[in-house]
Design a protein that fits this description.
Blueprint: E1 2-6, E2 10-18, E3 23-32, E4 36-38, E5 41-43, H1 46-59, E6 71-75, E7 80-83, E8 89-90, H2 100-111, H3 114-121, H4 130-140, E9 150-153, H5 154-163, E10 168-169, H6 170-173, E11 179-180, E12 185-186, H7 188-193, E13 204-205, E14 209-213, H8 216-222, E15 228-231, H9 236-242, E16 251-256, E17 260-266, H10 273-277, E18 281-284, E19 290-296, H11 300-311, H12 318-327, H13 348-358, H14 367-393, E20 399-403, H15 410-420, E21 424-426, H16 431-443, H17 450-460, E22 464-466, H18 471-491
Parallel strand pairs: 1-6, 10-13, 16-20, 20-21
Antiparallel strand pairs: 1-2, 2-3, 4-5, 7-8, 7-9, 11-12, 14-15, 16-17, 17-19, 18-19, 21-22
The structure holds beta-L-fructofuranose.
């Protein structure tokens, strides 16, 4: 099976080999995903990404014989494109970090109060949520959206151009802020209130469903046979959560990459005032589960520092950055990795320094100090979020599972154990691609339940474990961190 995983900074095609009991994964194609600023807007380069998708399918031949049993695509959340009745892509999909969204959010929230929106959708109001993007779109009237046009989220859009089927997969739709989280379907009344035609929205399909086969012209172009196309848990975070190696329900997870998504898996959403105030969101998971989680600006902070230093002429690897931070003294300065000031691309070191200065802290000067500040702050944010999750659930959680590329930052894993006082269980690193493949296996009838999938992941990809250290020191420092982030929110 081929899993194509588009992340916000890079993409990969993974070949998953399933022997009926165990899974192995092999990376067969990797590519960069660089957003493009065109005029005054920020876009995804859909055509280039589709080209990379085809290259990944083609690469299969160098690694295995015959054709893959199926293909499925997952991507980051919230973004979308429009396809008209003739199957043409209208415009270029916008990047969720485009500036148009902030104003749109403020305007819409003025007529549709945050508390009402949260009670209806259970989604934390982040400026890039699809609801605000569509509202901005409707106001600007840059596209003509007739009755035959459909809005497709990024994985659905890729799937459409692979198979010709226009449908919307549940987990990706759940990132939009337009679903009723209890019915797990569009909130039709809400759709009416954002001034876009309701004909834009297609039916919702559940993850693990076969949705057509590879278009004839692509099969001919790549000289492959007819391959089934599957709607997997097509929001990357949903696929990552599928592959958490545990059968117990007493942990919090962090899907750690560009973003750190921290939360728990539930049967029903939590829509109360505390969940809203603390910024939790209720997205959809495989098997109609709810991913109650918080969007934390994870490794983005380091990615943007790295990019800035490259512009200034110094190229550092993530491994080097980690080593530099490890040698630094910790617990000296903090930022709030949830603060919107860090959302847009731009000079990250300056923004971190400014944040520290505004909050009356010592200002990190060197690169190593900046990196240490980010890693400590993330660990502290995980501790703060864990406390909030435990209050929402009314129980203590035994451990923290971290999955995704972020586990390669071993310092972050260790500091998360220290800050939370819980063991951290790290892995698998390719969580998203593994979840994507296993949901395809489910569509083929090879596995039945989430438990079975997680048992396969446990057997196939044994995780690492980090025990908490220096707990007293971290507990004390946590109070300082909380004072700092409270100061900032009072000032901004
Ligand atoms: C992670 C992710 C998050 C989503 C963010 C923006 O890759 O999908 O879950 O909030 O990207 O789409």
């Amino acid at each position: 099976m081929l899993a194509v995983d588009f992340g916000a900074s890079s993409g990969r095609t993974i070949l998953g080999r399933w022997d009926g009991a165990r899974l192995t994964v092999e990376d067969i194609h990797r590519f960069a995903n660089d957003p493009v600023r065109l005029g005054d807007s920020l876009h995804w380069d859909f055509l280039r990404l589709f080209h990379e998708l085809k290259k990944g399918i083609h690469a299969y031949k160098q690694h295995a014989s015959g054709s893959p049993a199926s293909i499925a695509v997952d991507t980051w959340g919230v973004d979308y494109g429009f396809v008209n009745g003739k199957g043409k892509l209208i415009g270029n999909p916008y990047h969720y970090r485009d500036a148009r969204n902030t104003v749109a959010m403020e305007e819409l929230l003025a007529s549709l109060p945050d508390a009402e929106l949260y009670a209806r959708t259970g989604i934390q109001p982040l400026s890039f949520n699809t609801i605000f993007q569509l509202y901005a779109e409707a106001k600007a009237q840059t596209q003509s959206l007739d009755g035959d046009t459909r809005m497709l989220f990024m994985p659905d859009l890729f799937r459409y151009y692979l198979s010709g089927v226009r449908s919307t997969e549940y987990t990706i739709a759940s990132t939009s802020g337009l679903l009723d989280p209890t019915a797990r379907d569009w909130d039709r009344d809400l759709l009416g209130r954002i001034s876009v035609p309701s004909t834009l929205f297609t039916d919702i399909v559940m993850p693990g469903t076969a949705e057509g086969v590879l278009r004839k012209e692509i099969a001919e172009e790549l000289q492959v046979s007819v391959i089934p196309i599957v709607a997997t848990a097509s929001h990357d975070t949903a696929s990552a959560v599928v592959s958490i190696p545990s059968l117990q329900g007493d942990y919090a997870y962090i899907s750690c990459g560009t973003w750190s998504l921290m939360g728990v898996e539930l049967d029903q959403p939590i829509l109360n005032e505390d969940a809203r105030r603390w910024g939790f969101t209720n997205e959809g998971g495989a098997e109609r589960k709810i991913r109650m989680l918080k969007n934390i600006m994870g490794l983005w902070l380091l990615q943007e520092c790295k990019r800035q230093w490259e512009l200034e002429g110094e190229t550092l690897s993530y491994a080097e950055m980690q080593e530099m931070a490890k040698r630094e003294k910790g617990l000296l300065y903090y930022v709030d990795p949830e603060d919107p000031v860090f959302l847009a691309p731009g000079h990250m070191p300056d923004r971190i320094r400014r944040y520290c200065a505004h909050t009356g802290q010592t200002v990190p000067q060197t690169k190593a100090e900046l990196i240490r500040c980010v890693v400590d702050s993330l660990a502290m944010k995980f501790k703060q979020s864990l406390d909030e999750i435990e209050l929402l659930l009314g129980k203590k959680l035994a451990s923290i599972h971290i999955v995704g590329g972020g586990i390669q930052n071993r310092l972050l894993c260790q500091l998360t154990a220290n800050a939370t006082g819980r063991p951290v269980i790290a892995g698998p690193v390719e969580a998203t691609a593994i979840g994507n493949v296993m949901m395809q296996a489910k569509a083929h009838g090879e596995v039945g339940t989430l438990e079975q999938i997680r048992q396969v992941v446990m057997d196939s990809f044994p995780p690492d474990r980090y025990e908490p250290e220096d707990s007293a020191e971290w507990q004390e420092a946590f109070h300082t961190y909380k004072q700092v982030i409270t100061k900032k929110s009072v000032r901004s």
